[in-house]
Each structure stands twice: as structure tokens, then as C-alpha cells.
Fold this protein.
Amino acid sequence: MQFERAKAALAGTRFADFRTVEETGSTNADMVEILRTQDPAEDRRPAVLVADHQSAGRGRRDRTWDAPPGSSLLMSIGLPVGDIDRSRWPLVNAAVALAAVDAAPDLRIKWPNDLVEVGSGPGGADLKVGGILAELHEDLGGMGACMIVGIGLNLNWGQMPPELADTATSLDIILGGDVVADVIVTDLLVSLDSKWLGMLGRSAASIEPFVDAYRSRSTTIGRHVRVELDGDRELVGTAVDVDDSGALVVEGEDGTRSTVTVGDVVHLRV
């Protein structure tokens, strides 16, 4: 894949260090090494890596992410977060999700890290189009704290294999034609650079406009959900909010509200 549009648009931005590879194991693992080997005295800057194919992609809880070569956007963003207050670090994942929706407005965000087409699956279920995985590294080669955010987004599958057709789809299927990866990457990274990361910075007096934007693009808020928690526990109720830290607020049938910071959400039909 060629990304001349992205390289030109990102020159002079925080994402000017834009790299591509044909194939790799994991762009997130590669990004660790990219940031670790930067000279912090000279660089201390974000980097972006896009792969045409990866053989060891993974999502939350070490689930695998498999995609045919050339069918998906497979990208990792390495972001030093010294200019973001620590309390806002969990929202970096949300910032990338918001930028992805700017690049692909037909999508919505399923908490905590999925990008979906709403209501197009069997029985009105949402279909997954992409996922985001954010990993915190407290220090990489003197760079200080960094977030490495991987995103996988189905772009041009043509048709989904039978085993995925009831749970996932691709942007080309949604839009009815081929999707240009260069356009999606450019729009996503320009939006992330010019809008969402600035709203997380220390100079942003209030985080409320950012969280309001996330709420408006959420397909989880207002839904009846089952949240699968660690230790084989689960929480059932209505997702009523996402708070200023990015945590999901779930209200049980008895009116009790619980705040969830880590968990997998299943949207339930009522």
C-alpha cells in the first residue's frame, strides 16, 4: 500500500515520523523498539507504523487479529504522553477511536475498544469493523511514559468469510465499493493530531467536551449490557454513561450504579 497522501499531510505534525512495512509480526511490538531506540535528547516524538500484513496481531486478552494481506488497516501509534495529565492517559484509546469515526463516519464506538456498524447484523446486532488496543509503557529508552495504540480496521474484504459474517463486516461492504487506505489513514491521523489529542493536553482546562464527544459517538450508552469481568464475574444492567476517566457506568435493575474500568461488553437484546 502507498501512503503518499498521508506522508504529505502529516509533514510538520506530531506524526511526521510515518513508516510502512510490507509484513511484520506485530506493529505494536515493532513500535516498542522504534521508541526504545530513538534518541530522547533529539527526538522524543511520536511515530506511526503501518503494515500491509501482520502475522501475530492481537487484541484484548491476547486474542488474535487475523486479516488477509492488504485487506485491513494495521497501524500502531507510539505516543509519548508527558504533555497529558496521568489521569487522562486512559482516554488516549478513546481519542484514537474518535479519530477513527471521523475518518469513517458510518462507524460507532462500542466500549471499550471496538468500532462497529450499528444494527446491521442478524437480529439487529452490531457488526465489528475494527478494534483498538492501547498499552502503557512507563519508560522506553529514556523517552518517559508512552502509550502504544494499535488499530486494526477492516477495509477491503470483499465479503466476510462464513465464520465471521454474523459478527463482523468491512468498510467496503458498508460503503459499497473499495476503500482507499491512504485516505482513511490521513483523515484519522490528522483528526487525532489537530483535535482530539489537544483536548486531552494539560492546557485543556476541562475534559468534559472530549467526553461529551465520545458519548455522542457511543453505541454502548443506553444499551442493556452484560459486562464480563475478570475472575469469571459479570455485571448485567444498562450502560448509562462514560465518566471523565473513560470508565463505563452501568446501572443495575435495583438502581445501583457500578463503574467499570476493565471488562468486555456484550450488547443484549431486550
